[in-house]
Every structure is written in C-alpha cells, then in structure tokens.
Amino acid sequence: MDLFDRKYFEPMLLSEEKKAFDSTDYIFEVKFDGTRALIFIDKSSLVIKNRHGKDITYLYPELQAIKKFIKDKVIFDGEIVSFQDGVPSFQKLQERTHLKNKIKIEYQSKNNPVIFICFDILYQNKDITNLRLMERKKFLSCYDDNEFFMKNKYIENNGKALFNKIKKIGLEGIVAKKKDSKYFIETRSKEWIKIKNWQVASFYIGGYVISDKNVMSVLLGEIKNRKLYFVGKVVISSKVSLYKKVINSKIKNSSVFENYLIVANYIEPKYKCYVEYMERSKNNYLRQPVFREEDK
Questions:
Q1: 183 plus 223 within the same structural domain
Q2: What is d(CA 76, CA 117) in angstroms, rounded to the nearest whole number?
Q3: What domain range includes position 178?
Q4: Ramachandran angles phi, psi of 81, nearest 5°
C-alpha cells in the first residue's frame, strides 16, 4: 500500500543520550516542546495525526492555512508548538490539547494559534523515506515558511555549542541526526538522538504511595514561608537504599503538605532526594520528574 494511503503508522522515534556531542556525521536541531505530528496534504485535504495515529485535525483549524502554500501531495513530520513571549510553551499548548467544544477550539485557534515546526518530509508525490536525511532536507527546503509553517533550522557538526545556547534560553533540548539516516517508520532509531535539557533540584519527601511490590511513588515537596508545598511524585524502587528509610518511617495522621490532601502514607519530611525534571506547570508541579539519587 502507498505510504500516503495508510490509515495509521507511527513516525520514526528517537533514542536518548545524556550529554551533547560534536560530530561531522550529524546535524543538530533544537528540540521544540510540543506535540509530535504527521501532516498529510493533497489537493483536497489536510489531515493531522499525532504520534499514536489519532486524528487531531479538528483541534488546530488554523493549520488548514498551510494547504494554500502546498501544491504537492506530501507528508510532513514535525511538532505542533505554542509560543509565549517568543519561547515554546508546553503549558500554553496544553490549553488546546483536550478541547472538544467547537466554539472553544475556534476561539483558541484565533487567540492562541499554534505553529507547525517541520523537520522532515516523508512523501513528495511519492514515498521518499528511503532517501538519506540530507536529501530529504533538500526536498523540504522547497517549501517556504509562513505564519503557520516553519522549517526547523539545523547546524552541522557542533552539537555542544547548540546545546549550551538552548540551556541559556531554557529550551527543552536538542536532537542529533545522522546525515545519511533513512526514515524508518514505526522504529525507535539510534540514528536520531535526543539530548534533553534536564533541570536538577533537591526536594523533601513528605509521603509515599505503594504502587507495586518493589516500587513506590514518593511525594515531593519544597518549603516556602516555613510550609511544605507538594510539587509532584517520583518513582523509586526497593533496590534504592532510600526506599527502606521511607517505608520504615512513622506514618502521620494527616498530610504534611499545605496543598495536598489525598489518601497517602504521610511521613515527617526529613529525607530529601535529587530529581531531574523538564519544567514546572502552572501549579508549580514538576514535569517528567525522574529520581536521581538521595540527598545526604
């Protein structure tokens, strides 16, 4: 079956490394914090599907404008991104993600418009996934940027310099891609590598929830004005020495957090741990928290 006519396929996914690197074999792009999407365009339609194959066309009516600038039958791969003060804002994008009411969707499309940041092209009147990345980039360069469509720029060789720049701005990270990489649908490839700009901080542990025999979710908090405020949960396993300290702590009768009251095992917040996370939500909760180590 022709790639364009397939009802569902997952885009090529990335592997991950912790440290940025330099290499003449790679190009390096900014990793935008948005919704991964494939856009299918022909003469009569523009269809948007997320990385799981769900049709999300209805959520972003403003992106239909892209169709006016495209004469070919194409499949673009990229990220749907919301900007605030010139910087990508995942929180702002989240205001769009779960809408169902047509009137609200239309309002947001005019007052909180998104941009499609395009970093690859899979199809231009024929399947071109078998071509090398730099050849596909040449195909992509034929399409001009506009109000709702922007090609993701890249640099060659110097990944460390780009990563240092995005750290200063506070962006999500960078992506390293092998120049000769082909596009493998429904594959997590080691030829595309994401390097995330993780933030690290120490937080108090004010409780826990047992979610499995050998796993618990600890409740994290930080002190403000001498009060402990909940900021999120992070999973730790029984192999970590902190696990035993937490589970052997005396259970308190009520929550130790100023802003968190759900059913859990609350303990005196005397233990701390380092956690990696991407950013904070509007409620000051940690996004994508990952346990790093005990803070001793």
A1: no
A2: 10
A3: 3-196
A4: -130, 140
Q: What is the pTM of this model?
A: 0.84
Same domain, 245 and 160: no
SS3 for 265? strand
Domain boundary among the residues 161, 196, 231 is at 196
Q: What count of other Cβ atoms lies within 10 Å of the Cβ of residue 215?
A: 14
State the CB neighbour count (10 A cutoff) for residue 258: 15
CATH of the domain at 10: 3.30.470.30
Please write the tens of the pLDDT for every residue from 175-232: 999 999 999 999 999 999 999 999 999 999 999 999 778 899 999 999 999 999 999 9
Tokens of 177: 């891609």
Residues 222 and 153 both lie in one domain: no
CB 291 within 8 A of CB 236: yes
Q: Which token pair is 278?
A: 């991407």
Whether residue 173 sits in one domain with residue 67: yes
Q: Total domain count for the chain?
A: 2
Quote the pLDDT of residue 160. Answer: 97
List, as one string, the DSSP characters of 1-59: --GGG-S--PPPEEEE-SS--EEEEEEEEEE--SEEEEEEE-SS-EEEEETTS-B-GGG
